[in-house]
Amino acid sequence: MKHRSILITGGAGFIGSHLVRHFVRKYPDYRIINLDKLTYAGNLANLKDIENCPNYRFVKGDICDIDAVLALMREEKIDAVIHLAAESHVDRSIKDPFTFARTNVLGTLSLLQAARTVWAELPEGFEGKLFYHISTDEVYGALQMTHPQGIEPPFSTAASSGGHLAYGDRFFTEDLGYDPHSPYSASKASSDHFVRAFHDTYGLPVIVTNCSNNYGPYQFPEKFIPLFINNIKHRKMLPVYGRGENVRDWLYVQDHVRAIDLIFHEGQIARTYNIGGFNEWKNIDVVHLLIETVDRQLGRRPGEDESLISYVTDRAGHDLRYAIDSRRLQSELGWEPELQFEEGMELTVRWYLENEAWLDNVTSGDYLKYYDEMYGNR
Ligand code: NAD
Ligand code: DAU
Fold first, then answer.
1. Which is the closest atom of ligand 2 to the Cα of 223?
2. Are the CB atoms for 182 and 90 separated by under 8 Å?
């Protein structure tokens, strides 16, 4: 295998830390440089087990600082970028859209410009280089719920064949136009456009992937699944937005990481791939599954914590339904998600309950202020 020097941005966050660990362990001949600003969402404890690996280096820095990125790319002779660094939480984007525009739009632009500059200085130019941009399905907007009771999905995977339903007859495909609704998704959509513009204008070799909702260990507990696990554990109220009817398409984080690995090595330049598990769930059904799983793992009476469910004011502009059509990735590159949702939830709940110190650490300090502002001290 060819030696590569890969810059992974946002590698101390949720998905980034799984990706960094995967690449550091699986590819000892690759040098992995993790550039992360360590915002509230970045946590070096996520990478404790690999921090001393000889093919790994962590650099604290801001992707918006183009001079620092240029210097790092030259120093480390970076020949590929996998870009995950972002502000990622929709509720925060509603409160503070500017931070999202800065990091997600200007940060991506600064990385693109740095890659273009540094690679253009080399005798081989862009040959063998790759700028891989990690994006989200939220750029496509929201799908209708044409079948609120659910229908047999028109396609499935081994992992989703357990009788899961689809709640509409349309899905996000790669050729769909963009229609973002939140400041978060608008900023990600804008960054995707810049990435493609750098290919079309300057010939930069790029790939963009748009993935559905991830879940698993190390996800910051402002996001739905870890927030609710932590609240059930501490018997705090479970703030379900609206009527809990919104649908999300959940994918275990390791399945996303395997897809990124495959696309990084075998994906076609300038192509977009959607990543998702054909695994639609209404939020309220996820809440019931979480309560059942946490209560059972803690040895509590079944259903004991159902009374924690509290329907609260809906999120502004709350997208109704996301559902990814990932058949391009399946047919062209042979990717399949491996984990069924119930198995993934079992593992995820166990991880959060066993990693009390990690959870207590990230839910102290500034988190408490954020939590009180969002939900009141309940
Ligand atoms: P996260 O919030 O857990 O992690 C983001 C990381 O980026 C953190 O480590 C943070 O410190 C770092 N960061 C933020 N601003 C930075 C800056 N200016 N410079 C350098 N580092 C910075 O996010 P995540 O959930 O792991 O998502 C990672 C990427 O995947 C994002 O681009 C997100 O849009 C995308 N994505 C996420 C999901 C999901 O369900 N979580 C699904 C699809 C796509
Ligand atoms: O679809 C991919 C996206 O998934 C990623 O790009 C984002 O980075 C990621 O945060 C996620 O966005 P969502 O808004 O779908 O995820 P979140 O975990 O915030 O919410 C999931 C659903 O649960 C959503 O319908 C809102 C609802 N929810 C969320 C929270 C935090 C609640 O009902 N109550 C809550 O307290």
1. 18
2. yes
